[in-house]
Automatic annotation (TrEMBL):
It comes from Lactobacillus johnsonii N6.2. It comes from the Bacteria. One of its GO terms (molecular function) is metal ion binding. This is Zn-dependent peptidase. SUPFAM superfamilies: LuxS/MPP-like metallohydrolase.
Length: 404
């Protein structure tokens, strides 16, 4: 059976469709995926010029096309997505699902393998990479993950991939990589006002073997290797960057690690009433910003902050004490209640964002389930303080990374 699901669009005036191709993560593969995506975003065989391709989709009532790879745990997913005004909203007999899908799949299935286009993509990625690393927060995050995966180098550099490949990949390598994509497990997902008609049109395009393979990944998350380390890097910037990472067992129940991480992040650093905002920013006057994020696919709970360089030690102590307090069962009920309300509100807002609905469909396809925003809200509702404490007690300090 072909991997395709297009739901009935009852809310939006635009339709959305994504073709998602899955590959195991390693740095070279990610770099090749970035290059190919950049090339296809610029031009393809049917539209052999940047202006021509851009104009083609602009003329389709400003249809939005995106091509990019993204890392999900131990997998790379190559995104080909399109968002377009529903034909029923436009009184134009020449604008229909078939015209839009024909253009879309010309991009997906027929790249232009041209030397000049390859060199342009390399220059663009080099510029993007340079701009990305001009921000100290990105430098520190990259350094943190490269240290976290120092014994698992395939999982380092999970934004752009291998730097040498980005610079030196040949046209033959890109062609070969594209051919591997045809056999990669793939899924087509979307929303449309007439899902049956769109499904019939898309179905005829899905002739690559990967659309008939199992798309589900039994375990997406990467294990955290318990091996504590503290690194301090000298860096020329006005403020320091401090990242403190806690690992946890990837085999924990999904409910506990997903919602435990979400609640702990919101409780510690969700808003101005959160614990670390109060302790680090208000009392110490040390932090410009502070965030706490659960990286579910990395078995990592990460607290990061931009901070006055003379208060790094005090802030580090306050952060660790904040986590320790929860582990000891000291939870402020009012802040916990605010965290619950904020998480429910986030999911409620997500139902009004078509891009997040598509991401949820992708996450479900990867995990082999049908988990709705309504179910997420219900799970937030039933999450109790004792579960927050239980999750926090599963955490172990594993890395401190500081740009100073």
């Amino acid at each position: 059976m072909t991997n395709i699901r297009i739901d009935h669009n009852l809310k939006f005036k635009t339709a959305t469709l994504g073709c998602f191709l899955r590959l195991p993560l390693d740095k070279k593969t990610l770099a090749l995926a970035n290059i190919l995506a950049c090339m296809q975003s610029n031009a393809t065989k049917e539209f052999p010029g940047i202006n021509l391709q851009a104009k083609t989709f602009s003329n389709l009532y400003n249809t939005s096309l995106q091509v990019f790879p993204e890392v999900f745990g131990n997998q790379i997913v190559v995104f080909y997505t399109i968002n377009f005004v529903e034909p029923r909203e436009i009184l134009d007999p020449d604008y229909n699902y078939k015209v839009i899908m024909d253009a879309f799949f010309k991009v997906v299935k027929e790249p232009l393998f041209d030397g000049q286009l390859l060199e342009l993509a390399k220059r663009q990625l080099e510029q993007e990479r340079k701009q990305y690393y001009e921000l100290p927060a990105n430098v520190s995050l990259s350094g943190f993950f490269n240290t976290w995966y120092r014994n698992m180098p395939s999982y380092q550099d999970s934004v752009f991939g291998d730097e040498k490949t980005l610079k030196n990949a040949s046209l033959e390598e890109i062609k070969s990589f594209f051919n591997t994509l045809k056999n990669a497990p793939a899924f087509c997902l979307g929303q449309a006002q007439d899902p049956d008609s769109l499904t019939d049109l898309v179905q005829t395009q899905l002739d690559w073997p990967g659309y008939f393979d199992d798309f589900v990944v039994s375990t997406l998350s990467l294990p955290a290797e318990e091996n504590p380390i503290e690194r301090e890097i000298q860096f020329k910037s006005e403020q320091g960057q401090l990242l403190i990472g806690y690992g946890y067992d990837q085999s924990l129940p999904i409910y506990l690690k997903q919602f435990g991480g979400l609640f702990l992040g919101e409780y510690l650093a969700g808003d101005e009433s959160s614990k670390l905002f109060t302790e680090v920013r208000k009392k110490l006057g040390a932090a410009y910003a502070i965030d706490a994020t659960n990286y579910l696919n990395n078995s990592l709970f990460l607290i990061s902050t931009g901070i006055s360089k003379d208060k790094i030690a005090a802030a580090s102590k306050a952060i660790k004490m904040g986590v320790k307090a929860v582990q000891d069962g000291k939870v402020d009920k009012s802040i916990f209640s605010k965290a619950k309300s904020a998480l429910k509100r986030n999911y409620q807002i997500s139902t009004d964002r078509q891009d997040l609905i598509l991401i949820q469909m992708l996450a479900n396809a990867l995990r082999g389930r049908d988990y709705t925003f309504a179910q997420r809200i219900a799970d937030v509702d039933r999450f109790k303080i004792d579960k927050l404490i239980e999750f926090s007690q599963k955490l172990y300090f594993n890395e401190s990374y500081c740009l100073k």
